[in-house]
Amino acid sequence: MTFRADPLSIQQGDRLALSRALTAIENDTPESREIMAAIFPFTGKAHLIGITGAPGTGKSTLVNQLARHFRHLSKPNSAPKVAIIAVDPTSPFTGGALLGDRIRMRDLAGDEGIFIRSMASRGALGGLAHNTAAFATLLDGAGYEIILIETVGAGQAEVDIARLAHTVIVVDAPGLGDDIQAIKAGILEIADILVVNKSDQPGAENTARALAVMLEMTHSGGSLPLAGKHMRREVKSTQGNQRHEDESKNWKPPVLQVTAIEGAGIEDVITAINQHRAYLEETGLWQVKEADRIRQDLEALVKDLLMKEWQNKINQDQFEQTLSRVIQRSWTPLDAAESLLQQNAG
Question: What span, in angstroms and rounded, lies between the C-alpha atoms of 140 and 289?
Fold first, then answer.
């Protein structure tokens, strides 16, 4: 018998129904559209927090501690529900997630207010999987007030999280061979909060100092982080409000030192997260980031639907003939693509 997730059960805290709904979304089943249509009107409330950085910096340990502290620092009756989306590298054999992050978060399993879900990147670039945004939306609709999204950890290409999360934490650590590794290819530029993990190890102070210097250079030079630049354009075009445009450059990412495995410094990180959320809400940038996130998600969905439509229309023999011409260098890939689109238009 085919299971059909009940949106009401999901909203009422049925974890099995939620798990199966997430699986339906990941597999893009017809049922997933019904679920999302029912849940979507109740979304837009959760604080999406992205955690990214190079492998070996301790992202999973940090996420584990953040989830625990969010739950335990609050009063028992007001503790927020926390969801964790851990995007794992894809197994080359099964195509599934390697589940390393789930193993490191086993001590959270007994808390009914915490929900953990791993998902395979399945070849997607940018540190996230194709359905990460949809996962976050469903968890938002299920009543999770804080959603921690941990990226794959491939390092310098993980900028997609800046378009999805309200608050981005970039994690660095000493002893990785380059004190300013995080600034390469834009990783530093997407940070709302910088965390130097493993601060009990030699070199932590130097790493934090190097990051602070680079941040100071960025702000004194008048340049903005990647997300900030985009937000300024978005605010100006949608609201025409110079105040919001100016506000977008006022947040200076703090550089915090923690030792996540011991829980040292985690409360400072949570304080910074709450301060950043308050800043976004006070300046109106929360709504700007929400609109930008939905825009990016909509554009990605349109691309996926157009690709599926084209694949359904294309004649395979025609495609192979065109491919052969490209292989023989008689056509460029761009010429071939334009020809295939023209022949299958309409």
Answer: 16
Does residue 286 contact residue 279 with C-beta atoms inside 8 Å? no
CB atoms within 10 A of CB 268: 15
User: By C-alpha distance, which of 89, 236, 14, 270 is closest to 167?
Assistant: 270
- DSSP-H helix ranges across 84-125: 100-104
pLDDT for 193-211, tens place per residue?
Answer: 999 999 988 888 888 888 8
Distances (CA, A) of 275 to 9, 63, 227, 251: 33, 18, 18, 10
Residue 314 identity:
I
Question: Do 83 and 50 form a contact (C-beta atoms < 8 A)?
Answer: no
| Signed CA dihedral, 24, 29, 33, 38: sign only | negative
- For the chain, the C-alpha Rg in angstroms (whole number) is 22
CATH 3.40.50.300 segments of the chain: 45-289
CATH class of 45-289: alpha beta
The yes-or-no verdict on residue 230 having pLDDT over 50 is no
